[in-house]
Design a protein that fits this description.
With 325 residues, this protein is an alpha/beta fold. The protein contains 15 helices and 8 strands. It has an 8-stranded mixed beta sheet with strand order 3-2-1-4-5-6-7-8, sandwiched between helices. The longest helix is centred in the middle third of the chain and has 23 residues. The protein is globular and about 55 Å long. The relative contact order is 0.11.
Length: 325
């Protein structure tokens, strides 16, 4: 299976590195000319993943049409750009592996739903799980979920990507896998705020637990399964991104907790913190479904400029209730 990777950031680069480890060539599309040149000339994505030597089997291009001779395409562009990239691609009906984690603004659609709108003939899979790009690219042990309604496709992708240090698990719960990846980004911002504001380890542990309860409520309401949300793409990814400055969403929260404004923080970044875009969409979708997500609501308020102390006090002042039910 000849794989193509669309998206020139750190995560797309890491997945191209994984795909090249079995000795097969990988086509890699990036919007940035500097990325294309760096990979082809120096075998390194110096703008987004500096210091990681890449396989010479990765061939970069800036032409989307050059991707149509692949057998499957891995889409690793930010969630809010997925529809536009898909619309610009040649209509070839190739299997699409969606690797972005988010919910589309304006439609509240998951990435598989967006892909279904634009490429209705394409078989669709989702790759998600606890993954920091640099660790994956360096070959450190990693496990992910590959979910598809077509489990045979998920199985073929899993065998194609599996290496001694990269272990995919197969699922047919696309919704559950996508919900976990999208919601954890928002919760990671909240955990970063807790640490940035110096609120302590007790508060962060409580926030992870209550945030996971929100993820589960929303995931079940959207049709996901509980076991998926407790797996790699849900709880596993949540634990990773809520506890490390290597997480773009967590580090955004840390700066919010220290008193900086969201607009100033995001303006100084070249990488995308998906949780900042997902939070208001998620909050609106949850409200429309009658799903309570007070932590997500608090993140929205913080991104809009509410002082940290006010947001925390409002969360703690909520009426006493049963933990479950």
């Amino acid at each position: 299976m000849r794989l193509g990777v669309i998206g020139g950031g750190a995560w797309g680069t890491a997945l191209a590195q994984v795909a090249a480890r079995d000795g097969l060539p990988v086509r890699f599309w990036a919007r940035e000319t500097a990325v294309v040149e760096a990979i082809n000339q120096a075998c390194e994505n110096t703008p987004f993943l500096p210091g990681v030597p890449l396989s010479p089997l990765i061939a970069a291009t800036g032409d989307l049409a050059a991707m149509q001779d692949c057998d499957a395409l891995m889409l690793v562009v930010p969630a809010q750009y997925l529809r536009g990239i898909l619309a610009a691609m040649p209509r070839v009906g190739l299997p699409l592996v969606l690797c972005a984690k988010g919910i589309e603004a304006g439609t509240a659609k998951l990435m598989a739903e967006v892909a279904g709108d634009v490429c209705p003939r394409a078989p669709i899979a989702v790759l998600s799980g606890p993954t920091f790009a640099r660790e994956v690219a360096l070959g450190l042990p990693t496990a992910v979920t590959i979910a598809s309604a077509d489990t045979a496709l998920a199985g073929r992708l899993a065998h194609r990507l599996a290496t001694p240090m990269f272990r995919p698990y197969v699922s047919d719960d696309v919704v559950g896998a996508e919900i976990g990846g999208a919601v954890k980004n928002v919760l990671a911002i909240a955990c970063g705020v807790v640490d940035g504001a110096g609120l302590g380890q007790n508060a962060r542990a409580a926030l992870i637990a209550r945030g996971f309860a929100e993820m589960t409520r929303f995931g079940l309401a959207r049709g996901g399964r509980a076991e998926t949300l407790t797996g790699l793409s849900g709880l596993g990814d949540l634990v990773l991104t809520c506890s490390s400055v290597a997480s773009r969403n967590y580090s955004l929260g840390v700066e919010l907790g220290q008193g900086r404004g969201a607009a100033d923080i995001l303006a100084g970044r070249t990488s995308v913190a998906e949780g900042a875009s997902t939070a208001p969409v998620l909050a609106e979708a949850a409200a429309a479904m009658g799903v309570a997500m007070p932590v997500v609501d608090a993140v929205c308020s913080l991104l809009a400029g509410e002082p940290v102390r006010d947001a925390i006090e409002r969360l703690l002042a909520r009426p006493i209730a049963a933990e479950f039910g």
